[in-house]
Design goal:
This protein is α/β, with parallel strands linked by helices. The protein has a domain at 11-174 and 217-246 and 280-297: Rossmann fold. 43% of the residues lie in helices and 15% in strands. A 6-stranded parallel β-sheet has the order 2-1-3-4-5-9, sandwiched between helices. Helix 1 (20-31) packs across helix 7, helix 6 (186-200) crosses helix 8 (250-261) and helix 6 crosses helix 10 (299-313). The radius of gyration is 19 Å and the shape is globular. The chain starts with 10 loop residues before the first strand and ends with a helix.
């Protein structure tokens, strides 16, 4: 592990800092005594626009940029908006990193996505397998747009000596997640579905696919800690997975959430809808070796917290 970043008197810009993961990361940074954190909002800075990026960099004058901002959603949203997901994420990331390099920003932390992995990556996904095939079709445009930040990060380090790193977090979940049915990911979508079905006295819920795919999830607090540790201690352009090392099938996940929310009806599988990637689980050994990160939150514990938060805040 190299000399850790001294946070004292550093100015940190967290794009997406007002979002789900961003809120937890900002809290994590404050706990590390970071006093000067700039959080650009989309209302004031549309980061797809290079002029807005320039204005944001002038206003924040950062030493470090952590780029979390992304245009994201579940399988449905990815299928409906593939062009937007590609263009917005590519333009945001590529221009931001380029302008950061031009301004002499000390460090750039790019947040990628597990959607960048090939559809049939051997499990557990090792960072070395990132280029061994094409991503799963439903989210390939988004996955590839984010993956270009890895190419850029490595190219800019090679040519300019620019210190940028690229992290690959697996699917997040936790209190404060997005529960909007049009754009939410699988855990919040299922929690909402079960809670609403139970309240309405429905005898079944419908779930996409056949339940066979597996997924890995990381509790949002763990992910925030992983990103903070990497920002502090990791200075290479080799990509690094941020995961929990825990894999669960969608079928088992639905049954678990139904039980925890008290929904006792049937689960009906709509096999006309896509499954998404067949399996998803990460090899998390590089994060442990390079900056000492391991996830700590038990999955059932994290789910309980997420369900409780939704039930408290839904109205």
């Amino acid at each position: 592990m190299e000399n850790p970043l001294d946070w004292t008197n550093k100015k940190i810009c967290v794009t997406g800092g007002a979002g789900f993961l961003g809120g937890y990361l900002v809290r994590e940074l404050r706990e590390r005594s970071v006093r000067d954190i700039f959080i650009p909002t989309i209302e004031n800075y549309d980061l797809v626009d290079p002029d807005a990026i320039q204005r944001m960099l002038s206003d924040s004058d950062p030493d470090v940029i952590i780029h979390l901002a992304a245009h994201v959603g579940g399988i449905g949203a990815n299928r409906e908006h593939p062009a937007e997901f590609f263009y917005d994420n590519l333009m945001m990331g590529v221009q931001l990193m380029h302008q950061a390099y031009e301004r002499g920003v000390e460090k750039f932390v790019a947040i990628g996505t597990v959607c960048a992995y090939p559809k049939f990556t051997p499990v557990p996904f090792s960072e070395d397998d990132l280029w061994k095939g094409y991503p799963e079709e439903t989210n390939a445009p988004y996955g590839l747009a984010k993956k270009m930040l890895l190419v850029q990060s490595q190219a800019y380090r090679q040519q300019y000596g620019f210190n940028s790193i690229f992290l690959l977090p697996v699917n997040l979940y936790g209190p404060g997640d997005n529960f909007d049915p049009r754009s939410s990911h699988v855990i919040p979508a299922l929690i909402r579905k079960c809670v609403e079905a139970k309240e309405a006295g429905k005898d079944h819920i419908v779930v996409w696919g056949d339940g066979s795919p597996t997924r890995e999830f990381i509790y949002v607090e763990d992910a925030a800690r992983g990103i903070a540790l990497a920002t502090e201690r990791y200075n290479q352009s080799e990509p690094v997975n941020i995961g929990s090392g825990f894999e669960i099938s969608i079928k088992e996940l639905v049954e678990k959430i139904a039980k925890m929310t008290g929904f006792e009806g049937d689960i009906v599988w709509d096999t006309t809808k896509p499954n998404g990637q067949p399996r998803r689980a990460l090899d998390t050994s590089r994060a442990k070796k390079c900056f000492g990160f391991e996830a700590q939150t038990d999955f059932d514990e994290g789910l309980k917290n997420t369900i409780a938060w939704y039930q408290d805040h839904r109205n």
